[in-house]
From TrEMBL:
It catalyses: a sphingomyelin + H2O = phosphocholine + an N-acylsphing-4-enine + H(+). Gene3D superfamilies: 3.60.21.10. This is Sphingomyelin phosphodiesterase. Belongs to the acid sphingomyelinase family. It comes from the Eukaryota. It is found in: Secreted. The lineage of its organism: Eukaryota, Metazoa, Ecdysozoa, Nematoda, Chromadorea. It comes from Strongyloides venezuelensis. GO terms for cellular component: extracellular space; lysosome; membrane. Its EC number is 3.1.4.12.
Amino acid sequence: MMLYIIFLLLLPYFSNGISIYKQEKLLESLNESLKDESLSKDFCDICKTTMTHVVEMARNGTDIADIEDYILKRCLKEETQLPFVCEGLVANFTDEGVFVLKQTNYTANHICGAFVKDCSATDDPLNDMWRFVVPLGKPPVKGWPKVTNPQSTLRVLHLTDIHIDHEYSPGAEAKCKTKSGEKLLCCRVYPSVNNSKIKVPAGYWGSPYDCDIPYRTFVNAIEHISKNDKFDYIIVTGDMESHDVWAYSKIKTMTNVLNITSVLQEYFPKTPIYQATGNHEGVPMDALGHHSMQEYSKRGPAWLYNTFAQAWKRDLPTDTQSDIKYRASYAIKPFSGLKIISLNTIYCSKNNLYNYINQTDPDDTMSWLATELFESEKISEKVHIISHIPPGSSYCLKGWSFNFYNVVYRFEDTITALIYGHTHKDSFEIYYENADVNGRPYHVNFVAPSLTTDSHNNPAFRVYTIDGNYQGSSYTILESETYYANLTEADEYNPPKWKLEYKLKEDFGMKDLSPASFHELANILNNEIDVFQKFYTYYNRNHKDCNNECRRNIICGLRSARSYDKATLCP
């Protein structure tokens, strides 16, 4: 699959602009445009013609420079992107895409069938299934613990999707576009773009538009948090790089990972920090190869995993180093009766082109996870899983997501928290027995809001209150608090005011934060528009309109902890 190459080749034919920098939204945008009945035939022909040529070049030994030149000319021809963006994207992604085409049997029919409605009857690679056999012997379900009077609780900070932009420029255009109407990563100065008339100047501390946050805002947030709260530990679930994916480099990413971690450790010198990798840590973005592929020593992410091992070692036992360096996952036991598993879900990313060489359990990570859970089950230990990509997101490949759904079901009494980021939204995803929304809800993904403002959000972070650290602790989440800053109220002389936005259980009148209570909340959001509107404001940390179709899609997402399964989970 050459998602980025397809996008570059077809982009000139789109009637409406699509933001090229928001790569995690790329496929959804492409799908929506190409699924249009009136456009699909034309796009099908265009896709098959262009991709047939690219596939032939890749497999006939055409020099990579010639393939890059072909794609670059297509990108530049219609002036849909700034030249340096075209050049950067082609330089970043073409080699990876061509390598994958050489290692697979995907044809233009496979590729175009995945994107264009009724373009091909060939199987869609996005929906490839593989079977993982979960350990047998599931014990009788005990049901979700009822915690009425906990002996003690833990307070846990959750940061995710920080996305620092070191080129953020106050006063630059916050609603930027290219000559042809394409969006860029905004709040930057682009010399080749006419910025003579600034419509929305970028704020000093950030702007809730298509912008990432300046470094000062990250430091301000961490300084505020460290002065105003105390935590038993901190969770950071990935994505530290800005969204200028055309300009990624290994040295920039390594520097950023080490720098952000050092800032966190400086402000929290005695508080353990447990991290997980995000898709934007890959170079190119999402490009985390598996040991089973050819040229692993050249293309694999050892450079990144070794950086994680170095950056995270202050807070982790030495026996985690080998797992981090092998698969960027690890397991630790911070308290008696609790294990935290940091899981690398970039192995489920649809934009990790290396996944298409072999989607079956990359680096045996699902097997490793099941073993860790089985060992905990045997000693009645509770487990929290922290990760980046929520498995219900369409960003996660179907085969991986379906298998993970089954693993969570098998170990539903052992797992007591599933914590994610990635979407930039404040949300959740529910697991149902037999994937039936009328059946028993058995688990829930907590999906935290981003610190970045990208996608028109105000910056935010989460704090969990967890039952724990005493004999017989359930280690379930008792309350989830979201804090944010309204950047329209901040300027050079008035720093952001970080404040409590809401408490989930308290604000929505939930009995507890059990899967059953989330199921009830989803039903209320479906039936009561005023309650949904309140939820939607929290979802974005901003005031936006959401029509009936928008509301239906969001509620569908809340009921879907399994990707590519909306027909089943959204009746």
